[in-house]
Amino acid sequence: MQRKTIALLLVALVVLGVILLGRGRTSRSEKGHYLPADTATMKMVKPTVRIFMENSGSMNGFVTIDNEFKNALGHLIAKTNGFYEGTKLFFVNNKIYHAAVCDNLNDFVLHLNPQTMQVGNTSSTDINKIFGMILDRTKNDTVSILVSDCVYDVDNVGNLLSAASSSTTGTFMKAIREAREAGSEFAVIIMQCESKFYGYHYEGNTPIICNNTRPYYVIMMGRKEAVLELNEHLELENTPTGLPGLMHKFMLSSEDTWELDDQTARVFSSGFTNALRIQPEHDGLNIRNIITDHDKLDLTFSFGLGVGNLFVAPDYLLDAENYVVEPEEYVLEQVTDQAKFTECDFFDHPICLTLKNDDKSYAPEITLRLKNQIPAWVKKCSYNTRMKALPPRHKSYALYEMVEGIYGAFYNARDRKNKDIFRLKVKVGHYE
Length: 432
Description:
Radius of gyration: 26 Å
Number of strands: 19
Structural class: alpha+beta
Helix content: 25-40%
Order of helices and strands: HHEHEEHEHEEHEEEEEEHEEEEHEEHE
Distance between the termini: 70 Å
Strand content: 25-35%
């Protein structure tokens, strides 16, 4: 009797082992990488937040007067210190220094001026060295925030800017690799802010007095779930309670392409179409039948997407230039977050995408992809030839090359088939 029991236990263990082994061999591509439903509750993460303020001489003009910079920095310090335990503040130049301006973090901004900024070597900084020092201290339970004007301290000679960009890529690829080895995906949010500035702006080594608005950058780095949670709870938008002066945002993560399914997309069967009738499949995504209005010269119909859990900036989602539709007979006519239809009620953060087909060359399957590319604002806000005068108020020297370096790390971290942010496929059973 005892032998039979042991034999049965051995058989059960073998069966269980085979099941677990089979599950372990299932690849991500076999299971699919589906975006969590917009109505799902995200897991709360409580990271340690470290704020690094670059304190070279080019930053002094932001702290000589009360302005948007001090307001935004005060919000970051107060809200991170309120939401999360262990918030720490540092100055950074060629080394990292604890910011001992005052013992109370909430009073830091009150004591901030060009004199209290004189910590360490403030004569010049190397932004790539700063990235490296900060990322070395950004562990799996840490989110780091850099506040800087992010000027590449190199002249536009030969390929120096290109070399600086490649160095940035290598630095962030190391951070992505280390995060994955620790079981996480890595993420960065690049935010361009504007503030009144009174002091010297440096064009290379030439100081130019400036009493105007200048851009600076808040760059958040860390584990993707923690960075996403901070983005939500710190309200990182241009609002009085968020980040005053925020102009643009670029969000990057190393995760694979998301597949959208019936939990994250709906076909509109409402009046937001010029088809006479659209019959969605029972899953709400694919289409059984489209009855077209033959008196119309084109066909238009729309999708509602729940995008609350996407790691993407809102203005990036609303730019039609960031999408690709296949086959090419279909074009993306409009992207909006203002649609109010029943299908949108399923989502907490819906956007609407309207497709158009001019020649009625219909397809049995339509694919819509959100490309992973540098947003248009980055190039508009960048220059890489010294002007020997004050540049336009929204432009930063070699901004594009710096962002390109960070972007390159995340783009290269994805495999060849997963370069997009998301992919939506819709099958159409029949057109009439």
